[in-house]
Design goal:
alpha/beta; about 40% helix; seven-stranded parallel β-sheet; about 260 residues; single chain
Length: about 260
């Protein structure tokens, strides 16, 4: 021993990657976990205090990249800024999302504006992020694309949220096609499917005790998920430990999709 405290070897040492929706619940927890495991992290989200606070909390390992994922020029600009700093992306975690409670509903009741707004963030935003980030993933020795899906895109739990469910199903299909199209270039693509997770996305629902109880009872584990429940699988998929996993869906949902 030299008497000098040495930094422990971590699972993402030397890696650099990006998170969209970084200021949100799932995205911010993942960004912190990636940095704690040794990675440099680009934080893509709308400009605002939440993004600034996260960057300050993470410190030198973070680069705030304010951008609206529905705007192609802003997305491509954020990717260029990241490329200028790091030249590649070892991982890209697509977490940006919206769910329009009260506007979304059964398909016959969904206003076109609500449909368009939901797909603009959840599906078009994912498309633009992957479109402009795929070159950075191809430049890495082993690029990992991770998309945050939803049980609503897989099961009938999407009832009452036609736009949200369709957007998430489309995003998950995008992961599969990307896995097939870019495997030969060293990129793998996978989906994480969270259960009902206590984040700002569903705060309005959780404020109603009856709705909260119904959401909890819908989970075999009988509790809501937390953003921290999803960081382990995110780090695994960002790391070389997942080098043989691609085109897969990883459900971390308290058993919700298996009911």
């Amino acid at each position: 021993m030299t008497g000098r405290e040495e930094r422990p070897v971590t699972r993402l040492n030397g890696k650099a990657g990006l998170v969209t929706g970084a200021a949100g619940g799932i995205g911010s927890a993942a960004a912190r976990a990636f940095a704690a495991e040794g990675a440099a992290v680009g934080l893509i989200d709308l400009a605002g205090p939440a993004l600034d606070r996260l960057a300050a909390q993470i410190g030198d390992a973070a680069l705030a990249l304010p951008a609206d994922v529905t705007d192609e020029a802003q997305v491509s600009g954020a990717m260029r800024r990241w490329a200028g700093r790091h030249g590649r992306a070892d991982f890209l975690y697509v977490c940006a999302g919206c769910q329009l409670h009260g506007a979304d509903g059964p398909v016959g009741d969904v206003p076109l504006a609500a449909w368009n707004a939901t797909l603009a963030v959840n599906l078009t935003g994912a498309f633009l992020t992957v479109k402009h980030g795929i070159g950075l993933l191809c430049t890495a020795p082993s690029g990992s694309l991770i998309l945050c899906g939803s049980p609503t895109g897989l099961t009938m739990s999407g009832a009452g949220y036609a736009a949200y469910a369709a957007s998430k199903a489309g995003m998950m299909s995008l992961a599969r096609t990307t896995a097939a199209d870019y495997a030969a270039r060293g990129v793998r693509a996978n989906v994480i499917v969270p259960g009902t997770t206590a984040t700002p996305l569903i705060t309005s629902l959780l404020e109603d005790p009856a709705t909260r109880d119904a959401l909890i009872s819908g989970s075999p584990i009988r509790r809501l998920g937390t953003p921290g429940d999803l960081t382990g699988i995110a780090v695994f998929l960002a790391s070389d430990e997942s080098r043989y996993a691609t085109g897969a869906t990883f459900c971390v949902d308290g058993g919700l999709t298996q009911r």
